[in-house]
Predict the structure.
Amino acid sequence: MSQAIASAAFSPAAFEAHLASQNEPAWLRERRQASHAAFEEMPMPGMGDEEWMRTDIRLFHLDRYCPPAEAPSESIAEPLLSRGVELGGDMVRADGHLLTSSLAEKWASQGVLYGSLRVLVAEHGDLLRPFFERQVVDARYDRFAALSDAWWSGGTLLYVPRGVVIDEPLHMISAMSDGGADLGRTLVVLEDGAEATLLAETASPNEEAGGMHCGTVELIVGDNAFLRYVNLQNWGSKAWHFSHQKAVIGRDARIQWTIGALGSRVAKVNQHVALAGEGADAQVNGVMFTEGKQHLSYHTLQHHQAPHCHSNLLYNGGLQDKSRIVWRGMIKVDTEAQLTDGFQRNDSLMLDPDARSDSIPGLEIKADDVRCTHGSTAGRVDEEMIFYARCRGYTRQEAIRTIVAGFFQQVYDRITIPSVREALGQAVGQRIREYE
Amino acid sequence: MASVESGSPVGEINKYDFRTETTPVFKAEKGVNAAIVNQISEMKNEPEWMRQFRLKSLEIFESKPMPRWGGAIDIDFNDIYYYLKPTNKQGRTWDDVPDEIKETFDRLGIPEAEKKYLAGVKAQFESEVVYGSLEAELGKQGVIFTDTDTAVREHPDLLREYFATIIPPTDNKFAALNSAVWSGGSFIYVPPGVHIEYPLQAYFRINAENMGQFERTLIIVDEGASVHYVEGCTAPMYSSESLHSAVVEIVVKKHGRCRYTTIQNWANNIYNLVTKRAFAYEGALMEWIDGNLGSKLTMKYPAVYMMEPGARGEILSIAFSSAGQHQDAGAKVVHCAPNTTSQIISKSISKNGGRSSYRGLCKVLPGAHNAKSNVVCDALILDPQSRSDTYPYIEVDEQDVSIGHEASVSRIGEEQMFYLTSRGLSEAEASTMIVNGFIEPLIKELPMEYAVEMNRLIELQMEGSVG
């Protein structure tokens, strides 16, 4: 790739060409233009910003990546989450482009939409426009949010009409070529009383692959609806991962959101849950496991905006080698959100003296009749547990393996989908080193 | 409880304007600049190195941006007098003190002598004799307990060895400001092996400047020695200035022990932006006990750096914020060496629209293996207008550690309330009792007379707030 082309990758000229190629409704085009203008103006976040002071991206050069014109030809890795699962629909994305998508007829006939966001927004622009305009993720949050809003391509849409209950999981895999760029955007809309399960995972051609993902995930869960969403981030160890993810939960609605954070060189993720309707319930699970020089930075927010809501977050992280995990969590309770029950917990298992964990739980509470607690621990594998296991005939290595697996079991126990439990357990299991 | 009108907690008494007719001999111009810093240094007859230190600190102050986190700080630095030297030791007379304030003192049960001191009636202070004998006894053991200005003159070598080494002026904007214009504060040196049995109290000293706006305290506890220092008091403190910015540096050497107790109760128009830090060496113990009740905004995070193996740090922090107040208080523990242990207990209470925040740091540096730390934060919110925040930062750079943090926020339980009222207590009495129970861990660490005062103060604060 020559330098001249590279530096022009996200230029205004390239942007105009990109717009012309998208064939979109006018309102969406205007929105992209506004976001691109914002992207041009905003500075790159730096160490002076509270959210970025622990995450060094000085080695990240946006100019080295360009939005891919066509889908790569490399073969796509075997999916982990859909093994042995009867799927209601499936789709494969590569560098943001749609390769294949399918949806069982029984769901399609009930008005369910599942597939490429780009294709579906061209066909159902009027239906989807209000959901775009809700701006669930603030496109001006930072430069990456603006970039994603202006440049997203391909993407995924799941739309479930009022009262439709999909009892088979839907699956998607987004692949990125080595050194490629993925600007995918996911929009999930569950109308009132709808139910669905979406399993999303990422894949790189090999474990050391690079590339850049800059994306947005918006989940809109209507009143009395129930969404289960699993997001397994499994990029190669040289990839950059920037993502803004947010769910808005309606009255008496529920979300069960599981994040697996295993891949990438540097990941900076904002995962927000807004409990917007009375009686909303959010369960957030995180499994993070790092090795080498990985740096994963996850910023979670449980925002209680309405009374009687319940949120429960558990993030467990295991750290090997010289890796580093930053978890910064916040529970915000608005004045109106009386009778809130909020909980967050982050446990870190330090498997190597050179690993580093930053755990920053937070509470901001403006209502008085609430119950909010948080907890955070960091520690190593307990020698007494190893001793106990060895007394029962385990070798030291086996004992450590079992204890590490057991550490994550607390999170697995909360995940109701067996294939997800197995996939996460297997992915972590493969990564555990042989410890002496 | 009859003497003060009902619904008039201390927070409101604080607002009484307390003016006195003193004619200062020297009053610097408003604002801060090199000329004023030079003037201050000259007035104090300081050695050249201190003058240079002040000037350099001023430059640092000017170059640093305001902190972008914490509370909202709205200060015009050029509208403040940075140095006032009173005419003579004689200030106001007891008769000048407004009745309301005398009443507050009475209700807090503060001894007469202390009352007068607090009111600034120093000439009549009766503890002079007590202090005199105390000083003689300490002097025999080699203890130095003086104000920092005197120490610059009389103990220059000792002071210079430690001064600004724990908190350099580059540390933060307000430490730089203090370094440029500091005045007063305590200087304590405890020689090896000396144990001081009773708490040393800042206000037992007869010194016109020890409670200044920009005081600077330095405490050195030598090997195997121990000291308990008490700063401030439970009665409301009056100041016409809007900014209080102190620096407190403490060194605890091998197997030494130091406890530093503060009860801060500034008037509700004061910004209280204080930097406090201690270095604890091998096997040493540093304890901060920090109560914040007054001020408009407090940003104060007492820190313990555990520099050598076996050092311990313990911090107990209580914040009580009422209408118009923001207590951004907390604690920092930094484990720099193996086998170090620390504990933070934070309790906060918010009422009448007040905001209490806990902001803390627990950091384990590489090599500090077998570090243990436990952080517990509890918050009580008494009404729907109030707010409570918790921001604990935990940074672990070592594998072999045990770190725990937990926090909870709640309001007074209906059941506790019901239980107490069914036993004949009024709602106000019941909630006072529950709040007193909530801060019990602090109260029991205070010297007796403070504990009594503190309990009464909570009663006063709680008046007029029915849970």
